[in-house]
Every structure is written in structure tokens, then in C-alpha cells.
């Protein structure tokens, strides 16, 4: 299991090691403003994933990038600024994957594609996912994992709406069920990242099995069997 966790996101581990070699002559080479900004974002992304917002300092970002602190302030204004850019980029990257996955197909295929898209993101952008699910001082802004899940849920509402209308269920409940589905997939993804097994395809298949077969046997007027 440990070996699998080391394997997942290996390219990002390589990127972190490459970022830490900021003292090399290549890193000291003069960069354009755009190149320097991207370098700082890459370094900060790795540090935020490794240590979180609170555990990362401007000093450490500057040191790993082999620049002075004023350079970081010049580009981003401070730690909150660079963190916000990193989070916004990760959110957009994941949302783009989900939107693309939901572009066409049978409703069950759309569920499969959406689940696989999220798991692919976790697998290949492990640092980004760790950043998104961490709490941070900017958690009250729009740049949060919660708001991202809301955006994703809105993308899958039409799947439920169409299925509900076709089977005689109230389509007004589509937002509730889309939130439940997206939350289930996201939390399972967090668990899978740490557990390291089973294989990604198996996780996606089980998620879709629960979601799709659950949808196939919904009660038209569900009620509680116990009173509170």
C-alpha cells in the first residue's frame, strides 16, 4: 500500500524535487516576469500540498525558488495572494475535466465519466487535490472545495432531471440528489487517496453501481420508518 502511495503523483514528487534545486545555476538564470511567476506558483503549489497554508511561509517559497522575499510580494502581494491563484487554477482544472466528461453519452456513461474524471484528477494532480481539500484562511471566499463541489453538482443536475422526468419522479429534487452524488464521489476520492486501493477503475465502478442502481430503485415518495 505504501508503495502505491509513493507511485501515485510521482511526477509531482519529481516536480517538488526539481523545485527544491533552486540554487542551481539554471534556476539562477534570468527569467521573464511570466516565467518567474510560473516558477513561484509551482514552488508554492508543492509547499502548500506538503505543509498546508499555515505551515508554508513566504520565506520558504522564496528560498526554494532562489529569490528574495520582495520578488514574491511583487508578483502576488503575499502568501494569501499566491495561495488564491494556486487554488483558483486547481479548481478550474478539475471543473474543466468534469465538464468535458459530461459533454455527451448515456446517463450511466455520464456518471462513469464524471467519476473517472475526478479520480483521474486525484491520481495525476495529487498535490492539487490535497490543496483543495485543506482548510485555509480563505475558506470563506468563493475559492473553496465546497464551492467547487457546488459547481460540479450543478453540472450533473441535468442527468437527474432527465431521469426523474422520464420515470415519474419530481425533477425539482434533482439538485438534492446531485449534491448527494458529488459529495459521495468526492469523499470516496479522499479515502481512496489515502488507502491506495482498490484500483481506480474498480472504485469508479463501485461508485457508479451504488449511484445508478440506487437511482433505478428510488421510491416516489420516500419516508422515514422511524419517528424522531
TrEMBL record:
<dbReference type="GO" id="GO:0045892">
    <property type="term" value="P:negative regulation of DNA-templated transcription"/>
</dbReference>
<keyword id="KW-0805">Transcription regulation</keyword>
<feature type="domain" description="HTH tetR-type">
    <location>
        <begin position="34"/>
        <end position="94"/>
    </location>
</feature>
<dbReference type="InterPro" id="IPR036271">
    <property type="entry name" value="Tet_transcr_reg_TetR-rel_C_sf"/>
</dbReference>
<dbReference type="InterPro" id="IPR009057">
    <property type="entry name" value="Homeodomain-like_sf"/>
</dbReference>
<keyword id="KW-0238">DNA-binding</keyword>
<dbReference type="InterPro" id="IPR023772">
    <property type="entry name" value="DNA-bd_HTH_TetR-type_CS"/>
</dbReference>
<feature type="region of interest" description="Disordered">
    <location>
        <begin position="1"/>
        <end position="35"/>
    </location>
</feature>
<feature type="compositionally biased region" description="Low complexity">
    <location>
        <begin position="20"/>
        <end position="30"/>
    </location>
</feature>
<protein>
    <submittedName>
        <fullName>TetR family transcriptional regulator</fullName>
    </submittedName>
</protein>
<dbReference type="GO" id="GO:0000976">
    <property type="term" value="F:transcription cis-regulatory region binding"/>
</dbReference>
<dbReference type="GO" id="GO:0003700">
    <property type="term" value="F:DNA-binding transcription factor activity"/>
</dbReference>
<dbReference type="InterPro" id="IPR001647">
    <property type="entry name" value="HTH_TetR"/>
</dbReference>
<dbReference type="InterPro" id="IPR050109">
    <property type="entry name" value="HTH-type_TetR-like_transc_reg"/>
</dbReference>
<dbReference type="Pfam" id="PF00440">
    <property type="entry name" value="TetR_N"/>
</dbReference>
<feature type="DNA-binding region" description="H-T-H motif">
    <location>
        <begin position="57"/>
        <end position="76"/>
    </location>
</feature>
<keyword id="KW-0804">Transcription</keyword>
<dbReference type="Pfam" id="PF21943">
    <property type="entry name" value="TetR_C_46"/>
</dbReference>
<dbReference type="InterPro" id="IPR054129">
    <property type="entry name" value="DesT_TetR_C"/>
</dbReference>
